[in-house]
Specification:
Elements lengths: L1 H14 L4 H22 L6 H8 L9 H23 L5 H12 L30 H17 L4 H15 L6 H15 L12 H14 L3 H21 L5
Pfam families: Fic
Organism: Metabacillus mangrovi
Protein name: Fic family protein
């Protein structure tokens, strides 16, 4: 699968830079879908059309302030992730906390960008996240793993998927872990020239099952495959936009 994906990405690389307005419209399309689906997975009731309107600065009647903030905050978090990519900054705990701070801004400022001080449980999952006093050490181990993964030149899809899975397993924050983890995944992919991917709402069950399998059995294959399929889908979208049949 990775050989095919790398071939498709090589075709895209040769075709870059894409026409200005094509690149802009692709970015807007993927970032809208990313924002809609990542929030929908977490229970936000805004439709994709309503999400688009909120991003344009319009309030939707009958929807909560929190649901509006989740859209606006995710847009700002994406912008921050793009800045990290543009500046070629290495991943750090400080960046992770900043991403989370943006995700929860105005929703729960007390815990925005702050590691949790309480035990939490993941609804519907067998895996139980570590106790609060273990989080600092677990996050340090995660960053050590990440540095080693870079040295070993893990495929970006594997590295991004593993980063998401390991982060969610730690569940370092009171809330917003899912959205932050998917931001981290796409941050890693974008660093290597991949378009962002969208974990779709309709694939939520498979997404959660693959994650729980990774956490309870240390088997990450299903989750990596799920990410790889979405990565190929985004690449194919870009190629079709420039009239190349993948």
């Amino acid at each position: 699968m990775f050989e095919r994906i790398d071939q498709v990405k090589a075709i895209l690389n040769i075709s870059r830079p894409l026409p200005k307005y094509t690149a802009r419209s692709l970015r807007e399309k993927l970032f809208l879908e990313w924002t809609y689906h990542t929030n929908a997975i977490e229970g936000n009731s805004l439709t994709i059309k309503e999400t688009k309107v909120v991003l344009e600065g319009i309030t939707i009647g009958g929807k909560t302030l929190c649901e509006h903030l989740e859209v606006i905050n995710h847009r700002d978090a994406i912008t921050y992730a793009e800045e990290i990519v543009h500046k070629e900054e290495p991943l750090s705990e400080w960046q992770i906390k900043n991403l989370h701070r943006l995700v929860l801004k105005g929703i729960d400022d007390e815990y925005a960008g702050v590691y949790r001080d309480q035990q939490v449980f993941i609804s519907g999952a067998q895996h139980i996240p570590p106790a609060p006093f273990l989080i600092k050490g677990e996050m340090e181990q995660l960053m050590s793993w990440y540095e080693q993964a870079q040295k070993e030149s893990l495929h970006p899809i594997v590295r991004g998927a593993m980063l998401l899975a390991l982060f969610v397993g730690i569940h370092p924050f009171i809330d917003g872990n899912g959205r932050t983890s998917r931001l981290l995944l796409n941050l890693e992919l974008m660093k290597d020239g991949f378009p962002p991917i969208v974990i779709k709402m309709e694939n939520r069950l498979a997404y959660y099952e693959a994650l729980d399998k990774a956490h309870t059995k240390k088997e990450y294959g299903d989750f990596v495959e799920l990410v790889a399929i979405e990565a190929e889908d985004s690449l194919n979208l870009y190629l079709r936009a420039i009239n190349i049949n993948p």
